[in-house]
Amino acid sequence: MKLALLAGTQSGCGKTTIMLALLQYLKAQQHKIVSFKSGPDFLDPLWHQAVTGCLSYNIDTRMIGAQHSKQIIAEQAKTAEFALIEGVMGLFDGRSGVGESGSSAELAKALNTPVFLVIDAKGMSGSIVPMVSGFTAYAQKRGVRIAGVIANRVGSAHHAGLLREVLQQHKQPPLIAWMEKNAPLLPERHLGLVQPSEVSLPDLLPFLHIEVKDLMAFFSDSIALGNEAHHLIDNEIGDTYPAVESKHLLKNKKIAVAKDAACCFIYPANLDFLQQQGAEVMFFSPIAGDVIPENAEALWLPGGYPELFAECLARSKSWPSLRAFAESGKPVLAECGGAMLLGKDLVDHSGKQWPMANILPYRSRMQTKLSSLGYRDEASGIRGHEFHHSVRESEQVLEPCFQVGRGDVGIRYKNLRASYIHWYFASAPEVISEWLGANG
After folding, report:
1. 11 with 90: CB under 8 angstroms?
2. What is the pTM of this model?
């Protein structure tokens, strides 16, 4: 399988649009392709999947770790010829905003994969040279290779020709592709892109122009990954932990998982983890008013967009079974939007108040600005991240359930744990299994 990482100079330069266009191009060429997303984003992978028809997994050097990222790539490589990774923010932007830890560059180095650099070329010709040369030189010093440039928002074929020629003249990485300035834009909302299920996937191919005879030659040399990831470079880069093993920590454990448009922020790797550890996963929909399966022994409420479906959720017939489940003392893990379901009510962006399950004594209120963003580390070793526009309001002192140096400490009630943090299960298998009632 051949591999490449698509990175940008900064957020908003058009990475995701270019990513989808390249996936459409590779698919049109009848290639077997898989995709990945650097960082914790939930929405970009859903758009990848809309093009490829395959699950798109998150990988990074921070929350997921270099070794587990390699393991994920190796598993997906079994059925693919090419893999394309979409970067996060700018190429060198890391978790702290100033360092490179957790950045796309660090991931590219860990995987020894070439980078395609996306540049917003609107109103630019010769000025592309210092930008590309600066990124290229900076990358080389850090063991990262920029193999080619992809220009976004290009005005015309003549404009593209100017960019191509000036890069050649100054012996910079070549212009391998460009996107017209009038290409369709993907719709966004407060947490990023809308879900692909809400809109039609645009056909981007008419707006994408490949500048080289063999784009595939710009991917990494073929990597025979086989069944393991040891063929990938073994340098210990970034925060890492061992590749995940199937220890059957949740053998025969029946776990109910909320999954619908309101609870859609689910890492495919988290579901894989539950199944690898022997759990039986049973889905239900709060929007549809599904009752929690009677034989469920644990419950996971992932995040999503409850604020967009608050009116429907206010009438949900799921709440009595959810209250009974929580009161029974069975394990409940609620993340972000899933935790919002457990409060007494939810105040949406318009200020309208909607009743929720009323298990925990707080109100969730949507804000117009970002409330919290960043990676999170719990004292037990499990990792996750926060990204939300709501706040939790309560007149009572609530028992915390997590020890985090920064971020939401959550709420503990009986055997229920709720917080704004989205956890990455494989970062601490024993911990997450214990939270979900692991078999002694």
Report:
1. yes
2. 0.92
Residue 353, amino acid: Q
Residue of 13, 263, 264, 336 with catalytic role: 336
* φ and ψ at residue 140, rounded to 5 degrees: -60, -40
Which pLDDT score is estimated for 96?
65
**Minimal CA–CA distance to 316: which of 339, 336, 333, 291?**
291
The residues, any chain, with a CB within 8 Å of residue 225's CB and separated by 6 or more, are 1, 73, 74, 77, 78, 231, 232
Single-letter residue type at 323:
R
pLDDT on residue 229: 42
Residue 330: count other Cβ atoms within 10 Å of its Cβ: 19
Domain match, 66 and 145 both: yes
Instruction: Supply the range of the domain harboring residue 429.
Output: 254-435
How many structural domains are present in the chain? Answer: 2
Do 151 and 300 fall into the same domain?
A: no
Q: What is the pLDDT of residue 239?
A: 52
> Are both 155 and 284 inside the same structural domain?
no
What is the β-pairing status of strands 390-393 and 33-38?
unpaired
- Is 54 an annotated catalytic residue? no
Is there a single domain that holds both residue 196 and residue 308? no
Provide the 10 A C-beta neighbour count for residue 247.
14
- pLDDT score at 98: 64
- Contact (Cβ atoms closer than 8 angstroms) between residue 175 and residue 148: yes
Report DSSP letters for 332-398, one per residue: EEEETHHHHTTSSEEE-TTS-EEE----SS-EEEE-SS--EEEEEEBTTS-EEEEEESEEEE-SSPP
Instruction: Report the alpha-carbon distance of residue 58 to residue 74 in Å, rounded.
Output: 13
Amino acid identity of residue 276, one-letter, is Q
Mean pLDDT per 10-residue interval, the chain, length 440 residues: 96 95 97 96 94 96 93 90 95 78 94 97 97 98 97 98 98 98 82 75 96 92 46 47 76 98 96 97 98 98 96 98 98 98 97 98 94 93 95 92 93 98 97 90
pLDDT of residue 236: 46
According to DSSP, residue 113 is labeled -
List of long-range contacts for 48-51, beta carbons under 8 Å, 24+ apart: 48/19, 48/20, 48/23, 48/86, 49/196, 50/196, 50/201, 51/20, 51/23, 51/24, 51/27, 51/201
Same domain, 207 and 284: no
